[in-house]
From TrEMBL:
Enzyme Commission code: 1.2.4.2
PANTHER family: 2-OXOADIPATE DEHYDROGENASE COMPLEX COMPONENT E1, 2-OXOGLUTARATE DEHYDROGENASE
NCBIfam families: 2oxo_dh_E1, PRK09404.1, PRK12270.1
Pfam families noted in UniProt: 2-oxogl_dehyd_N (PF16078), E1_dh (PF00676), OxoGdeHyase_C (PF16870), Transket_pyr (PF02779)
GO CC annotations, alphabetized: cytosol; oxoglutarate dehydrogenase complex
Protein name (Swiss-Prot/TrEMBL): 2-oxoglutarate dehydrogenase E1 component
Cofactor(s) essential for the protein: thiamine diphosphate
Assigned keywords, A-Z: Oxidoreductase, Thiamine pyrophosphate
A GO MF label: oxoglutarate dehydrogenase (succinyl-transferring) activity
């Protein structure tokens, strides 16, 4: 029992056997007050002396502690008597081993340029632990060091530690709190110290990969002089590293690998890893396009993606290189989302079949906030992908600013010692490796792949290398880094260095390396890829056919109605809660009200309509995925898709229990991230057209934090790369006097991005419109991003309701005109608007009994429904004034983005005016009284027009154009 307690303590304690002085003082504290020490220590001390009531000699305590520590991980050994001095020496040895594990990376040979001088690390000096030259021949217990011998001379122990932890690999992992993971890494590193890292066949393959990496770069450099390609030279070992990723994945029966990377080395990866045809690549360099045949705007060659199947290690593996803009690291969450969708399509909950690989630059990995956001998602519910292999191509240089492995605080462009320090928050191991030791690079890559497979967690490879040219091939790096580039010019390439190593080992002769290089160049001359052969995509059962999702047009009317009987059946299942499930009284009231709505006893609200949209889509066999910071309950307490038992806190999600068995409903309450989560959902939607994928901003204003994802992917992905996606964004929007940070979803920014009919922007004004809009997104054979400005106060507005029949009949209406019952001939002014302001206008018109004003809602602002708009104008033959009315300031909202569309069909009699808040630098005022005054003025100007109103607190109505002559 005593031994079991000791072993348990050792396994879980963060302290080590060398801390004898600390143990003594802690034991003295235990003798005074046993309850004052940590429980695991209390159990240990108690096990040494029965109940621990009487003091015992401190020497035996140290002997017992040191002895049990030394045997940890090695199995029990007979206990020998040990003098106090010998115990101190043994403790010093164990401390030294431990400090090599913790700090050996600081003394490692990591910089191929040799510019970095490792600091003196006192903890790695034997003298620091009371050990001297006289002890070098003394045999000590090796403790938890993974060696075949239980005892070794001190010099041999130190030699092992140096070779493992201060060679060309420097490992950081001792911050990991999971003992099993730490011991796994220790075993893999330490037990392999005397074993060759690669066999002869693997070494030859590494040389072949280095030849390919160097060959394509030199070929492009000489054939396309001055063209940007963002060369990999100096980081050539990335190609054998990625080749090992693919081989290890194949051996583990991984079906797909999705790679995200920026531009450096991208062309090299496309050809030598994914097998893209050099002939196609050369055509892109030569600009060999028929402009008349181009169907999209396109992108530069080093942003383009690629996908194919290859056969390797007797396995077929699908490789994907994600499209990526120049915004470094922005692709990270996109790749993760794509991988998640692929995994869920295969019902892979553990990430065994699809592998995400992210390639980073050192400056961007340390500097871009989206890296942290993506890392934080890695183990989160609804976002975990079974671990990502991260490869940092650390060329020790950002654009022009040096980022050394370590530097004095304030002298360089970052604060952290390593660019990878951010990964420590995940307790992810980091393997720093010298890029000019390709065998070490392949070794840690294999280790990283095995770690990911074993523990399902992220792992980091920090390949420290250099950049042979400038940021691009036309740049001159010596201007800002003269010393570094004096050294670079003297450097032999990694291929030459490695070829020399293999020649010295007798594995190749003096001509073999050159023959490999000549053969590779001959293949390029013929436009052939001799590095990687692809199988294309024929026969891949998991490939999604996206062709069907561009068959329909946005203007095609689709039937989104659902029979009343079906709606009631689905509603009944949604309201069928488990036995003894006690809801909060406010939530119970909402559920009870929804029961009445389903029965037709009361008008339906937005929450009910939304649930019916999801339930009916699930019933049709579609999946629904909803993510946001408060999406389960809803920021405005309207949704309640997740219900909580007030008795025990257990949650129940009714939408998981409706629809077809194959259909899945997922709702994720996410961390406070916009860019990371939206990028993830975009990536998900590009890989799964059968899921209604929704990202909801907590407030519409918060979408600002994801602007890069919107600009570079969502709004332009189809035009640049031909990537379809049906992502939906819910952006709460409306002026309720909540100040500048909680009013506007920046509608004007989305409309400014709209062109080429690539995105849909809607402002639904009724629950039924929301219902039909969501169903339309999936029912029609069209996948375009949908931006929905969703309501806030309208969620409970007495006028903003619908009937059950509104869901059972019809479709989404681009424009909602007045009912047929009004007198068309009496209308003199037609006011067009969107969203909440319609109800303010409606109530004011009714109060004033104005029968000469028509209120028309434009529910879809892009693509603009020009035909429907023209039909409305044609209906009101006597109307001369056409007004656009909006809550937003003049320089915001829809006005400036749709003004030209409103003008086009106007007749000679028409005069176009607009009613808005005055132009403003912020989205809204922060004073409630001022907000109310402005809102009243907007409504007044919209209904009656009149003088030019520009004073603060008033709206403005101005003529946008003169009457046609």
């Amino acid at each position: 029992m005593k031994s079991e307690l000791n072993d348990k303590f050792i396994e879980n304690s963060p302290l080590f056997g060398g801390n004898a002085a600390y143990v003594e003082s802690y034991y003295e504290q235990y003798l005074k007050d046993p309850d004052s020490v940590e429980p695991s220590w209390r159990d240990y001390f108690k096990s040494l002396n029965g109940d621990g009531a009487e003091d015992v000699a401190h020497g035996p305590i140290r002997d017992s502690f040191v002895d049990t520590q030394a045997s940890a991980g090695q199995g029990a050994r007979p206990r020998a008597s040990m003098s106090q001095r010998a115990a101190q020496k043994q403790a010093g040895v164990l401390r030294l081993i431990n400090y090599y594990r913790m700090r050996g990376h600081q003394a490692a040979d990591l910089d191929p340029l040799g510019l970095y001088q490792p600091p003196t690390v006192p903890d790695l000096d034997p003298a620091f632990h009371g050990l001297g030259e006289a002890d070098m021949g003394t045999v000590f217990n090796t403790g938890s060091l993974f060696t075949e011998a239980d005892e070794l001379p001190l010099r041999d122990i130190i030699d092992i530690c140096k070779r493992v932890y201060t060679g060309t690999i420097g490992t950081e992992y001792m911050y990991i709190t999971d003992t099993r993971q730490k011991r796994w890494i220790q075993r893999r590193l330490e037990a392999s110290v005397d074993k060759p890292r690669l066999n002869e066949k693997e070494k030859r393959e590494v040389l072949r990969q280095l030849t390919a990496a160097e060959g394509i770069e030199r070929y492009l450099h000489t054939k396309y002089v001055g063209q940007k390609r963002f060369s990999l030279e100096g980081a050539d070992s990335m190609i054998p590293a990625l080749d090992e990723v693919v081989r290890s994945a194949a051996r583990s029966h991984v079906d797909e690998i999705v790679i995200g990377m920026a531009h450096r080395g991208r062309l090299n990866v496309l050809v030598n890893i994914l097998g893209k045809s050099p002939k196609e690549l050369f055509a892109e360099f030569e600009g060999d396009y028929d402009l008349d045949d181009l169907e999209m705007s396109g992108d530069v060659k080093y942003h383009l993606g690629f996908s194919t199947d290859i056969e390797i290690e007797d396995e077929r593996v699908h490789l994907v290189l994600a499209f990526n803009p120049s915004h470094l690291e922005a692709v990270n969450p996109v790749v993760q989302g794509s991988v998640k969708a692929r995994q869920e399509r295969r019902h892979d909950d553990d990430g065994d079949t699809i592998l995400p690989v992210l390639i980073h630059g050192d400056a961007s990995f340390a500097g871009q906030g989206i890296v942290m956001e993506t890392l934080q998602l890695s183990q989160a519910e609804g976002y975990a992908t079974g671990g990502t292999v991260h490869l940092v191509v650390n060329n020790q240089l950002g654009f022009t600013m040096q980022n050394p492995i370590t530097a004095k605080l304030g002298e360089f462009s970052r604060t952290s010692q390593y660019c990878t320090d951010i990964a420590k928050m995940l307790e992810a191991p980091v393997f720093h490796v010298n890029g000019d030791d390709p065998e070490a690079v392949v070794f840690v890559t294999r280790l990283a792949m095995d770690y990911r497979e074993t523990f399902g967690k992220d792992v980091i490879i920090d390949m420290i290398c250099y950049r042979r040219h400038g940021h691009n091939e036309a740049d001159e790096p010596a201007v800002t880094q003269p010393m570094m580039y004096q050294k670079v010019k003297q450097m032999e390439t990694t291929r030459l260095l490695y070829a020399g190593k293999l020649e010295s080992e007798g594995l190749i002769d003096g001509e073999e390396a050159q023959k490999l290089a000549d053969a590779y160049r001959d293949g390029l001359d013929e436009g052939k890829n001799i590095s990687r052969t692809t199988l294309g995509l024929v026969g891949n059962e998991h490939t999604v056919d996206w062709a069907r999702y561009s068959r329909q047009r946005w203007s095609d009317v689709v039937d989104t109605s659902v029979p009343v009987e079906t709606l009631q059946r689905l509603a009944s299942r949604l309201h069928d809660l488990p036995d003894s499930f006690e809801l909060h009284k406010r939530a119970q009231r909402i559920i009870d009200d929804r029961g009445k709505m389903a029965a037709g006893a009361s008008r339906i609200d937005w929450g009910f309509a939304e649930h019916m949209a999801y339930a009916s889509l699930l019933d049709d066999g579609f999946n629904v995925r909803l993510s946001g910071q408060d999406s389960g309950r809803g920021t405005f307490f309207h949704r309640h898709s997740v219900l909580y038992n007030q008795k025990d806190g257990q949650k129940f999600i009714p939408l998981k229990h409706v629809g077809r068995d194959s259909a899945v409903f997922t709702v994720n309450d996410t961390l406070l991230s916009e860019a990371g989560v939206l990028g993830f959902e975009y990536g998900y939607s590009t890989a799964d057209p059968s899921t209604l994928t929704i990202w909801e901003a907590q407030f519409g204003d918060f979408v600002n934090g994801a602007q890069v994802i919107i600009d570079q992917f969502i709004s332009s992905g189809q035009a640049k790369w031909g990537r379809l996606c049906g992502l939906v964004m819910f952006l709460p929007h409306g002026y309720e006097g909540q100040g500048p940070e909680h009013s506007s979803a920046r509608l004007e920014r989305f409309l400014q991005l709209c062109a080429e009919r690539h995105m849909i922007v809607c402002v639904p004004s009724t629950p039924a419109q929301w219902f039909h809009l969501l169903r339309q997104q999936m029912v029609r054979d069209l996948r375009m991003p949908l931006v929905v400005l969703t309501p806030k106060s309208l969620l409970r507005h007495r006028l903003s309701t619908s009937t059950l029949e509104d869901l059972a009949d019809g479709q989404f209406n681009f424009i909602i005109d007045e009912p047929d019952s009004i007198d068309d001939d009496a209308i003199e002014r037609v006011v067009f608007c969107s969203g909440k302001v319609y109800y303010d206008l409606y109530q004011a018109r009714e109060e004033r009994e104005l029968d000469n004003v028509a209120l028309v809602r434009i529910e879809q602002l892009y693509p603009f429904p020009a035909n429907d708009y023209a039909a409305v104008l044609d209906r009101y033959k006597n109307a001369e004034e056409v007004v656009w009315c909006q809550e937003e300031p003049e320089n915001q909202g829809a006005w400036y983005q749709i003004k030209h569309r409103l003008q086009v069909p106007l007749a000679e009699r028409h005069e176009l005016l607009y009613a808005t808040r005055p132009g403003a630098a912020t989205t809204a005022v922060g004073y409630h009284k001022l907000h109310v005054k402005q809102q009243e003025a907007v409504v007044e100007a919209g209904l009656t027009g009149g003088e030019r109103l520009v004073d603060k607190g008033k709206a403005q109505t101005r003529k946008s154009r003169s009457k046609k002559k």
